[in-house]
Amino acid sequence: MAPGTLSTFLKRGAIWGFIVLELVFFSVAGEFLSLSDKAFMDLDNMLLLFKQSAPIGIIAIGMTIIMINGNIDLSVGATFALSAIVLLDSMTWPMFGGLGDGVIPLAWGLALMTGVVLGALNGLIVWKTGVDAFIVTLGSMLGYRGLVFMYNGEQPTSHLNWTLVDLAESQFMGLHTPTWFLIAVTAVIWFVMNKTVHGRNAYAIGDNRTAAINAGIRVGPHFVINFMIIGFLASLSAVVFYSESGSVNPNDGELYELWVITAVVLGGTKLTGGAGSVLSTLGGVLAIQLLRKGLGHIGADTETVNLVIGLILIAVLFLDRQLNLKGREALKT
Amino acid sequence: MDRFSKFDLGGFLARQGILVAFALFLVGFTIANERFLAPDNVMGVIRSSAILGVMALGVTFVVISGNLDLSVGSMMSFSTIVVLDLHDKIGPTLAIPSMYAMVLCLGAFIGFLVGYLKLNSLIVTLGMLSAIHGLTLTYSGGKNMDIADKEGTWFSFFGQSDVLGIPVPILMFALLASLLGIILAKTPFGRKVYAVGGNGTAATFSGIRRARVVFTCYILSALCVATAGLLQASRSLGSQNTVGQGLELEVLAAVILGGASLLGGSGTIFKTVIGVLILGFIQNGLLLVGLQFYVQYVVTWIIIILAVWLDIAAKRGKLWSPIA
Amino acid sequence: MTDQTPALRLEGIVKTFPGVRALDNVSFSVLPGEVHALMGENGAGKSTLMKVLGGIYQPDEGQIVVSEQPTVMTSPLQAKSKGIVFIHQELSLAEELTVAENIYLGELPKKAFGLVDWQKLYAQTNVILEKLKVGFDAKTRVGDLSIANQQMVEIARALTVEAKAVIFDEPTASLTDAEKVVLFDVISDLQAHGVGIIYISHRMEEIFKITDRISVLRDGQYRGTLKTAETNEDEVTQLMIGRKLDLSRNETHHDLGAVALEVRDLSCGKLFRNISFEVRKGEVVGFYGLVGAGRTEIAETLFGLREPTGGDILLNGEKVHVSSPADAIEKGISLVPEDRKGQGLVLGMNCRDNMTLPQVSDLKAGPFVAEGAEIAIFDQYRDRLDIRTPGWKQLVGNLSGGNQQKIVIGKWLSMHPDVLIVDEPTRGIDVGSKSEIHNLIRELASQGYAVIVISSEMPEVLRVSDRIVAMYSGEIIRTFTSQEVTEDNLIQAISGINPEKAA
Predict the structure, then answer these.
(1) Does the beta carbon of A323 lie under 8 angstroms from any beta carbon of chain B?
(2) For residue A2, which residues of chain C lie inside 8 Å, CB to CB?
(3) A269 interfacial to chain B (CB closer than 8 Å)
């Protein structure tokens, strides 16, 4: 076996192994501790788990390509909130008054457009100024949040459209609408990253930016496209979630960026870019959601979830380091 | 050596641009509203910036050493909740040192992971953000924490009193800033922080114990966070579990605004203080001219991008990035 | 052959930088099907010339002519489209991607909707890989390949275009003998297809084995072209250095003191084995060998950067364990590292702070750094080492290579170490500073320092050493005194041949 293969294998398979471990642990522990009689691996329970994973999951898929590309996006939570406001508010605009349910596609379109524009703005700034994406999106995280507040002050924005609620709560082949969106997004982005020139170039740029530039790959436009994709997905996540809930607070989506990054890192995407997989990220999202549910199932305080996830994230990093240690001969710097 | 003697406006702006921008802000807002530079208003601004500022001091050390600390927000919530809870249980005299001890333990843990185990600081502190948040919730059972007898405790001294007419939070901020500023600029340890952040390998090759330096930076950061938590708790005498949520990124924004590079090796305490004050004065100035507090978010966004952009544009000698 | 149209011709190329005439009227041409060596010492202008060819620099005067078409180069990519391809010394590959994706980096074949045409990609790649007769597959992840195979991927890239000229920059630096054979086959294959080859290398035996003509640069000037078949190593060397190679020995001698450092059977995994030697006070011991012979690794072990797997280190007769550089410095060992910018200096710090970095904790006035004492130290060593800088506030990154190296040396001299290890002391440094540093090393020895000099340049080792340790593949082959060493036995020793042992 070539050097590094074992650790690569562990990295690629680890998240699914971890999910199995979680399932077994919570099922067994649940037998002894659980307050309810319901089995943990109950079908309804699992379906719900998928549905609840969708909002974070859809954004995390987008974050994966951003991080593969060697960037990061801290502004997704604010983009999420702003798109949600556009979605709900646009349905009440007088100019759409006579449309009835015909307003739905328009509102969706406007919301998604919001995300694409905000993403494009991030991408253009990263490209044209050369400022690191961490700083650019740290700034726009504040800036976009400011736009959220400027839109409607500190008031929540609400509008329930029952057709939308029905759509969001409906099930097709047993899966909820948000779950279908998550699956579709994962499939499409997997396809983009593995089958298209854009996707392969995104890997190359994250892996060795200088080599990519020397090979004539235009780094900037790829950045912008990826930021537009993550903006679109942050909006899509908002569209999926708020179609059902119908009310958005200006603080909604705060800390989403951190949850999303946690899921992506758990999925094994390399922080420096160049390596990572959309499917593993999906695994990371499910693992986190499973942990949330599982801890509740065995009667642990829901408060401990954050504690456990944080420590697991650090443990994963530690294990990764141990697997890559080069032994005693290595230079100690 | 002509190059060195000629006055170079671009270079000057790149180095001192943030001060120039700050001055322009002050002038602009003063023209817009004469109350802006009134002593009580200035005092108010600094006072309300003090908590953020104290945290930014510690993070400055961490950033100069080439690392990040995203856990300061949730660590601040933790320290606030703990000190409020212990206040009623063991009294303020014991509560304060106990809280400091706990927070320093957390800082030591992070310092160990990043310094000695050399784990990526972004992920470690991201994990700790979540873990400490969970710890706080577990500790408090998810409930708000309040001091029972709000009138009868001297604990409010740190957040609410004045000494010589100056609010205590400002004094603490000033004191810590001077102390840490001197440590960073004048002591061997400070020099090592710059070396480790500037070129960690070269620092090791020069006999600097890099792990120990990074560890100490996180200890200092924890110390500042505990102080910020103390000020917060003393000011409000009651708190939610999420009081510090999101502050980690605002703190980072202040540090970056002050000109510290995320790559490490550059930045000063003085500039961080300027960064903090800019954030505070923008917020206040916008309020005074009748705008809502959230307009500052948008303004801060623009300022951060411009500040960092002009900085690197001056270094590369071109405004626009050469990337195709 | 001379009647042919050159594949690539350079006409009177001039390139100046502030204060330096880096290329001064350089002209030569490469014929189709010819292997043309480009030789010159470090700093002679080879890399500048390559950057001009690749469009990274624009020449001030002169022109580049490709197949009789005057051409302006704007980027390596554009050069490639004109048929001028570079095989770089440093690999520029994306390790996580496959061989095929790397070969066609930036030029992946497309289908409709921006999809990658994998079939076409693999088919094209396989054609190239077959030509190169490599033992790996188009779908292999590049990160899983050996360095030599990664280099093959680089070469394969060159074959994706209708190349007129291919430029190899030190291609054999990290190859084994077997891999070199494959590389030379590839080169002769290209030759047979009428491609002109520019082959940049320091290795004479390779040059004489595979090239047709040799062009030499010295100090930015074109010094002439020789037919390989009609010349010899001496002639080429003289052209390169403008005089006979200075192989003068160290002639100064003084009494040696006690043994400062003794190493017994020191080993570190596969890096080096059973290393034993001693260095006396006032003695300079030179370590000579090829890149990868384990010399730097021994220095790093002595400096506490690597954990030995066996053997002892004795300082002034006492057995010690060196756990870290900080520990080494305390025990009196200092290392001037090989990579000046990466390991020796904090480029964003000023000269003074860099120089006093190892002792900053000791230079205290109360709790503060004693800046006066620091400046005094800086002034002392600036004068002693003749460091040219406008002042201590100057950032080290703005100094020339020679002055930077002097800062590093000054940094360690100011610590008054018992044992000073200097790894490649004059790499990338101009000729003038070079001899200054050589004199300095001799002077240090006369003052009683025990000095170890690691170098890949024979004249340097001969010039400064009292004794020379020849290493090959992690082992000491032989130790010479400066009287008994000859050019021949030294070269044999670092190639793994020890006549004494064999006899």
Answers:
(1) no
(2) 144
(3) no
Report the Cα–Cα distance between both ends of chain B, in Å, rounded: 34
Q: CA C237 from chain center: how many Å?
A: 18
CB contact under 8 Å between A328 and C107, yes or no, is: no
CB contacts of B204 in chain A (<8 Å) are 332-333
Distance CA C208, CA C131 (A): 25
Q: How far apart are CA B288 and CA B292, in angstroms?
A: 9
Phi-psi bin for B243: left (phi > 0), alpha (psi -120 to 50), beta?
alpha
Q: Which CATH superfamily is domain C259-341+416-502 in?
A: P-loop containing nucleotide triphosphate hydrolases (3.40.50.300)
State both tokens at B58: 């510690």
Return per-residue pLDDT of chain C as tens, 503 residues: 445 788 888 888 888 876 667 788 888 889 998 999 988 776 678 878 888 888 888 888 888 888 888 888 887 778 888 888 888 766 688 888 999 999 998 889 988 888 999 999 999 999 988 887 778 889 999 988 877 788 888 888 888 888 888 898 878 766 777 778 888 888 888 888 888 999 988 777 788 888 999 998 887 888 888 888 888 877 887 787 766 556 677 777 777 888 999 999 999 988 899 999 999 999 999 999 877 788 999 999 999 999 999 999 999 999 999 999 999 999 999 999 988 888 999 998 999 999 999 999 888 888 899 999 999 999 999 998 888 888 888 888 888 778 888 999 999 999 989 999 999 888 767 666 778 888 889 988 988 899 999 988 788 888 899 999 998 888 898 898 888 887 777 777 777 666 555 43
Residues of A in contact with B244 (CB under 8 A): none
Name the residue of chain B whose CA is nearest to C353's CA: B191
Total domains in the fold of chain A: 1
Cβ pair A258:B130 closer than 8 A? yes
Q: What is the ipTM of this complex?
A: 0.83
Residues of A with Cβ-Cβ distance to B124 under 8 angstroms: 314, 317
Interchain contact A325–C (C-beta under 8 A): no
**C280 interfacial to chain B (CB closer than 8 Å):** no
CB contact under 8 A, C349 and B186: no
CATH 3.40.50.300, domain C8-241, yes or no: yes
Residue of A nearest to B200 (CA): A333
Question: CB of C390 within 8 Å of any CB in chain B?
Answer: yes
Counting one residue from chain B and one from chain C, the pairs whose CB atoms sit within 8 A come to: 74
Structural domain includes residue A34 = no
> How far apart are the C-alpha atoms of C410 and C307, rounded to whole Å?
27
Shortest distance, CA C300 to any CA of chain A (angstroms): 8
**Any idea what the Cα angle at residue A115 is, between residues A114 and A119, rounded to 5°?**
120
Give me the CATH number covering residue A150. 1.10.3470
List of chains touching B (3+ CB pairs within 8 A): A, C
Distance, in Å, from the CA atom of C164 to the CA atom of C191, rounded to the nearest integer, reads: 10
Per-residue burial over B159-184, b = 16 or more CB atoms within 10 Å of its CB, e = otherwise: beeeeeeebbbbbbbeebbeebbebb
Can you give the residue ranges of every domain in chain C? Answer: 8-241, 259-341+416-502
Q: Is it true that C8-241 and C259-341+416-502 share their CATH fold?
A: yes
